[in-house]
Here is the input.
Amino acid sequence: MSRSSRDAISLPPPPVDYGVVLLSHGSADPRARLACDLLARRVGHRLGAFVAQAVLDLDRPRLDGAVAYLSSKGIHDLVVVPMLLTTAYHATQDVPAFAAATQAAHPSSRITIANPMGADPHLLKGLDSVLKTAGFRPDPQTAVVLASAGSSYSAARTRHAALALEWRTHGWGASAVAFASGEGPTVGQAVSQLRQSGYERICVAPFLIAPGVMSQRIAAAAREAGAQPITGTLHSTDAAMEVVLRRVRSAVEQRDMQLASG
Here is the structure.
């Protein structure tokens, strides 16, 4: 017996009328996709919006595929959040270029690019959460290393170094920055520096959104240096979700202001 129209459940419209694309660098490690999917689901739940993933390299879907997917859901107003913790070449060159090409291929969609996540100080709360999960709380006898993926941009390295220095104010005894690739102190050098300052308990935390090849490299370097490797990443933290929400809301506000003034 078929249900009558009176038995149909009518759902309210979503709180927002736009979709969101979380645009990450991409990884060959399948754990990265699962981690980003968890973050996307949490963001979508908080916003009441469709949220899709896209990557710049090494995986699928690319930005074009994510926009096509959201278009198939009837979502043509999109906010793209670059999930990049380093404001460097990918953020300043690749993202705008891919967005322009995608916009040209989907003229019926309106694509707004939010600011990258970047070295947001709020993410330090996320690192604290990751360390807490691993059994470590802010302690004057414990030193921490903020291990970044690295960048060829000196300004980006400087911002991460400043973020590592600020992390000390959360109650840790000392802090240092390290880079898994490129110029700057390595994990081993950062650990050695902290040990020379008298710290025996040193935790190395990856300043990364999701686990993958880079997080494994950082953990291996921490073990080799005799430090405590922290394997968790920011994807599951409230802080990461909050930064994404801030980027989305700021982009929507700026877009609406431009539309109103235009």
